[in-house]
Amino acid sequence: MCGIVGYTGARSAVDPLIEGLRRLEYRGYDSAGIALGTPTALFIEKRAGKLANLESALSPNIPTVHSGISHTRWATHGGPTDRNAHPHVDNEGKLAVIHNGIIENYSELKTDAGVDQQSRATVVAGAGGLSLGRMDSLSLGECRAGGG
């Protein structure tokens, strides 16, 4: 089962995000990741395996920010690897995407957006990044999520 945790508040976001993932561990997962919105760029860390792998990869110099998202993933498409762990980021590093379930219209989004990513979540991130850059008719509201 996947789990998504978001935090915005007065505290540094890292601890509430990690604690939220810890509370979801009983559901089972094969990777975990975190995205923090710093003033200059997104900070992304993700690891296959247990939450402890993600925690040990986090630098003590993580920027103090007050909002972020985190995710635990159970692989339905693509193996349990660092690369396949969520969050996924668009090509410019401006948009982080996490989701539960299957992106059923992955091929359509990939073709319509002209992005060259392989996994479903990276296609959504790429399409979203292009949409943010163009502000045109591409609508992520049209992503159809199936069960998963």
List the helices and strands and how they pair.
Elements: E1 3-8, H1 14-24, E2 31-37, E3 42-48, H2 51-57, E4 67-73, E5 88-89, E6 96-97, E7 102-103, H3 106-113, H4 120-134, E8 145-146
Antiparallel strand pairs: 1-4, 2-3, 2-4, 5-6, 7-8
Tell me what the structure shows.
By secondary structure, the protein is α+β, with helices and mostly antiparallel strands. It contains four helices and eight strands. A four-stranded antiparallel β-sheet has the order 1-4-2-3, covered by helices on one side. It has a two-stranded antiparallel sheet with strand order 5-6. Strand 5 (88-89) and strand 6 (96-97) form a beta hairpin. Helix 3 (106-113) runs parallel beside helix 4. The longest helix has 15 residues, at 120-134. The radius of gyration is 15 Å and the shape is globular.
Task: Write a brief caption for the model.
The chain is an alpha+beta fold. It is 28% helix and 24% strand.
List keywords for this structure.
148 residues, alpha+beta, 4-stranded antiparallel β-sheet, two-stranded antiparallel sheet, 4 helices, 28% helix, 24% strand, disordered C terminus
Rg measurement, Å: 15 Å
Number of separate strands: 8
In whole angstroms, the N-to-C terminal distance is: 8 Å
Q: Looking at the chains present, what oligomeric state does this protein adopt?
A: single chain
Strand content: 15-25%
By helix and strand content, what is the structural category? Answer: alpha+beta
The number of helical runs is 4
